[in-house]
Fold each of these.
Amino acid sequence: MRARLPLLMLVSCCIWSSASAQWHLGLELGINKYAGTARDTSGTHVTPHGGPGGGPGIGLLVSRNWQRTGATLRISYANPGFAVSGEGVHVIDKTTGVLYEAAGLISTRVGGIGPSGAIRIELGPALHLWNFDGEYRARFGGVGAAAYEWPVASRFVGAIRLEGAVSESWFNATELPPEFERQLTWRYGLGLGLRYRF
């Protein structure tokens, strides 16, 4: 009997852990701003900065939450375009510069607002595929976010997220003029999502 007791406890814990976990399927709309990527070091250009422009994006995600922790896989699409900017000048070409992103996030609950709202911190790796004039560039980076989740209806959860991401420059070294240097590509975003719990 004593030999079976640890096994019974282990099985009970596994069943309880599985029952307490919840799957979420969600859709997220966001607005993004980018910085970095390429910069003129000579000071001779009117628009010394070049990189992704910004704008809206859309993402699909699937997540699994336990008591305080969670794991999320998110696939997103955006058309930030290509932008050049400088003193009072900001021009975006939306005919190029499409972004596909895949991110894997681990989250932990750090607080709450009200009886059922949850504040989460998320962190994880990301893969950026940037289509620039028909040529795809793959860049690895990281994503960090703070999110607030609240119940909307019986099985629906709303979420708002403040997010930051960083990766290496989306330009190749051979395609920039010699006076330009590559920089890290930064992305800042605000997203609003709706998730279905099942």
Amino acid sequence: MHAGISQVAEGNGEDFFLATVDEIVGPDDVVLDLGCGHGELTLAIAEHARTAIGVDRDSGYLALARELADERGATNVRFLELVLPHNRLPLADGSVTVVVNRRGPVAEKWLDEIRRVARPGAEVVIMHPAGGPPRPSWAEGLPGFGALPYEQVRSWVVEPLAAAGIDDYRLWWFDVPEWFATGEELRLRIAPDDHSAGWARASGLALRQQRLVARFRLPATR
């Protein structure tokens, strides 16, 4: 969510994901945050874990994350760059106990590496956005609309898990209203570089925020 731009109804996927991470992570855990971005979630996790490790492919985001960690005096957090196209995580085998993925890469791209770096029985919680809402009539020609169907987003999770022989998982689908007071607030969310006058015509907009959250446990033996 983007504070100050919109308001999202209670019972949304973002809040549920964060609550699930809080439930899973304990003081002895070494947590991998895959696709950590600028590190805000990684640093929040570090407050409750033994170690938090953020991995991302964007060196600019990682620089911001390290700067933020220095500002907060966080000594139990590391930020590492994922070098493409190899998709190999810069971590030792069996070195993490929990994996989180908030809007990061889909499971088929990273599940084999997660199984390598995580200990047997490690818990994993991920969240995938499901795109935006269908394009309303007033938004003809504007970017940023178009929802993804549930079955498509679900397949990003269940098909890789099935291929890996993992059947211990749970899925939650969230679809709640997200309100924008003005067209300008909507523009800041979906098209910040588009300054056309058309954005000012709409007000009191209610769109949809759709998320899929998945939680699963890796097999107890390799």
